Amino acid sequence: MNLQLDFPAVLERWPSFLAGAALTLELAFFATVLGALLGTLAAVGRGTRNSLIAGACKVYVETIRNTPLLVQIFLVYFGLASLGLKYSAFTVAVAALTINVGAYTAEIMRAGFEAIPRGQIEAAEGLALSRLQIYWHIILLPAIEKVYPALTSQFVLLMLASSVCSQISAEELTAVANYIQSDTYRAFETYIIVAVLYVILSLVMRAGFWSLGLVLFPRRRRLGTPL
Amino acid sequence: MGGHLNINHLMFLGQGALWTIGLSVIALIGGGIVGFVIALARISPLKFVRIASAVYVQLVQGTPLLVILFLGYFGLAAIGLKVSPLAAAGASLTLYVAAYLGEIWRGCIQSVPKPQWEAAEGLALSRTQRMMKVILPQAIRIATPPTVGFMVQIIKNTSLASVVGFVELMRSGQIVNNSLFEPFAIYAIIAVTYFAMCYPLSLFSQRLERRMGRGRSNLAPA
C-alpha cells in the first residue's frame, strides 16, 4: 500500500470549505430558532385538555422521532414538489430540519414542564397572576432553564445532522466536501478536514450556548449550578 | 414512469428492510463491544487511558455519521484500501455507536450508588471482582432502558448507509423510485416501515423506564 497524503492540495480550496461551514451554521441557526418555537408549541399542545390537539401533537412527535431524518428530508422535498411548489434546496432543508428538531425539542420541553412543582403554580394563582403571566413566568421560563443543557446538546446534534441535507444538494459543508473530493481525487484528506471542521463547529456552538446560558439565566450563575 | 407498484417492488423493499435490521444488529453488537471497552476506559484509574477515551468520544460525537461513512468508504478507497459498502457501513456505524453507547454506559456505571463501591472495597474485592460481581450487575439494570432507546437511533442511522451504496431499506426505496418515479408514495412507505421497526422499541424503552422508576425511586440518585 503506498500511502501518500497531500493535505495542501485540498487545503487550497479553503474558501469553499469556509463557505460550506458558513452555510451549515446558517442552516443550524434557522432550524434551531424555528424548531425551538415549533417544539415548545407542540409541548404546550400535548399538555392541553383538548384531546384532539394533544393527540395531534403526540402523533407528530412520535412519527418524527421514529423515522430517519433522511426519509423526512426526501418526503418534504418530493412532497412539496408533487404539490407543485418549488423552493430552493436551502428552504427545503430548513423546513425539514425544523420539523425534525421540533419533535425532539417538544419531548425535552415536556420533561421541563413536568418538572415544575405544582405548588409553584398554585402559589402564583394565589398571588392573582393572570394565566398568561403564570405560563410565562412560572412555567415556561423555569422549564427552559431546567432543560437548557439537554436542549443545547440537541441543537448541536441538529447541526451535525444537517450534513444529511447534502443529499438534496443544499451546498453545506458535506456537499462541498463531496464536490471537492470528486474534483481532487483526495477523498481521505477531504473528509478528514471536514471532520475536523465539524468538531470545531460543534465546540464553537457549545461555547456559544454556554455563554448564552450565563446571560439568560443569571440565577443559575449565582447559584453555581452547572449549565 | 414505469408502471405501478407491484408485489415484486414490495418484495425488494422487504429485502431492504431485512438488511436494515441486519446492519442494525451488526452495529449494535460491534458498537456494544467497543462501547463497553470505552465505558471502562473512561473510568480507568490510568489518566492516559481516561484522556484517550474521552478524546475519542469527543471527536466522534463532534462529527456527523455521514462524514464518518464517507471517510470509511471513499476515504479508505482513495488511500488504497478497497472496502465493500457493507464493511464500510458496518465499521463506521460500529465506531459511531461505540462513542455514544460508551458514554451512556459510563453514566450508568457511575450512577451505581457510591456505598456499593465502598462496601465492595471494604470486603477486599479486587477491582475486577468489584466491577464484575457488584457494580456491573446493577449497572446493567440501569442501562437497559437507555440502551433500548438508543437502538432506535441505530436503526434510523443505518439509513445513511444508503449513500455509500449499501442496499438497505432506504437505498432499495431509492432504486424502486428510480424505476417508478412516485417519490412521495414510496418514501411514505419507507417511513411507515421505519416507524414500524422503531416505535415498538421506543414504547418498550419507555415502559422499562417507568418500571425502573417505580422500583428504584428510593435507591438511585438522580
From TrEMBL, chain A:
Subcellular locations according to the entry: Cell inner membrane; Cell membrane
Gene Ontology cellular component annotations, sorted alphabetically: ATP-binding cassette (ABC) transporter complex
Organism of provenance: Bradyrhizobium cajani
PANTHER family: ABC TRANSPORTER PERMEASE PROTEIN, MEMBRANE COMPONENT OF AMINO ACID ABC TRANSPORTER
Pfam hit, one: BPD_transp_1
The family this protein is said to belong to: Belongs to the binding-protein-dependent transport system permease family. HisMQ subfamily.
Example GO molecular function: transmembrane transporter activity
GO biological process, alphabetically ordered: amino acid transport
The protein, known as: ABC transporter permease subunit
Keyword annotations: Cell membrane, Membrane, Transmembrane, Transmembrane helix, Transport
Top-rank taxon, per record: Bacteria
Bilayer topology annotation: Multi-pass membrane protein
Transmembrane segments: 20-44, 190-217
Domain named ABC transmembrane type-1: residues: 21-209
Keyword Membrane among UniProt keywords: yes
Lineage: Bacteria, Pseudomonadati, Pseudomonadota, Alphaproteobacteria, Hyphomicrobiales
